[in-house]
């Protein structure tokens, strides 16, 4: 698996350090508010697990599964709900947890949905921001790392469902995906 990576952009140590920093920030922001922390599956799973263990106040966890990338490297433009929340959003302080904001389509869809469901507040925390990928105007409230417009894998991010279990974030060797997308 590791030999298929061309370059590591964020190391495991940098991610661990960042999760502690963000966890502290979220503790201060949400202390006493019992936020509803919503992980966007599948990609957000490792980040959600690491960051929320550094948040030192009560919170509720829930999950939503959405998908717009299929097996490829480009967004289909259509966000599909695969699993909806169990919790009610009305009156809750919603904290959306994402691995990446790229085109912004997934998060703009989810922010609109949670506002429509009458959340008391909606904030976004994302480990990665690729601002150059944006096709809709949306910003995250908390960003771990801003990265260049390359297709990334690792730490939740997949290519064709693989590489999510890498402990770092990197770029694949071009021959890995050009074989399938040519
Ligand atoms: O800003 P965008 O261009 O919408 O891209 C970001 C979204 O794309 C990825 O999810 P994907 O749809 O691939 O599902 P996955 O989490 O199951 O991989 C990622 O986990 C984000 O949810
Ligand atoms: O760079 C990316 N890598 C994997 N999944 C993604 N979904 C949006 N952008 C990306
Ligand atoms: Mg994906």
From TrEMBL:
<keyword id="KW-0479">Metal-binding</keyword>
<protein>
    <recommendedName>
        <fullName>Hypoxanthine phosphoribosyltransferase</fullName>
        <ecNumber>2.4.2.8</ecNumber>
    </recommendedName>
</protein>
<dbReference type="InterPro" id="IPR005904">
    <property type="entry name" value="Hxn_phspho_trans"/>
</dbReference>
<keyword id="KW-0328">Glycosyltransferase</keyword>
<keyword id="KW-0460">Magnesium</keyword>
<keyword id="KW-0660">Purine salvage</keyword>
<keyword id="KW-0547">Nucleotide-binding</keyword>
<dbReference type="InterPro" id="IPR050408">
    <property type="entry name" value="HGPRT"/>
</dbReference>
<dbReference type="GO" id="GO:0016757">
    <property type="term" value="F:glycosyltransferase activity"/>
</dbReference>
<feature type="domain" description="Phosphoribosyltransferase">
    <location>
        <begin position="13"/>
        <end position="159"/>
    </location>
</feature>
<dbReference type="InterPro" id="IPR000836">
    <property type="entry name" value="PRTase_dom"/>
</dbReference>
<dbReference type="InterPro" id="IPR029057">
    <property type="entry name" value="PRTase-like"/>
</dbReference>
<comment type="pathway">
    <text>Purine metabolism; GMP biosynthesis via salvage pathway; GMP from guanine: step 1/1.</text>
</comment>
<dbReference type="Pfam" id="PF00156">
    <property type="entry name" value="Pribosyltran"/>
</dbReference>
<keyword id="KW-0808">Transferase</keyword>
<comment type="function">
    <text>Purine salvage pathway enzyme that catalyzes the transfer of the ribosyl-5-phosphate group from 5-phospho-alpha-D-ribose 1-diphosphate (PRPP) to the N9 position of the 6-oxopurines hypoxanthine and guanine to form the corresponding ribonucleotides IMP (inosine 5'-monophosphate) and GMP (guanosine 5'-monophosphate), with the release of PPi.</text>
</comment>
<comment type="similarity">
    <text>Belongs to the purine/pyrimidine phosphoribosyltransferase family.</text>
</comment>
<keyword id="KW-0963">Cytoplasm</keyword>
<comment type="pathway">
    <text>Purine metabolism; IMP biosynthesis via salvage pathway; IMP from hypoxanthine: step 1/1.</text>
</comment>
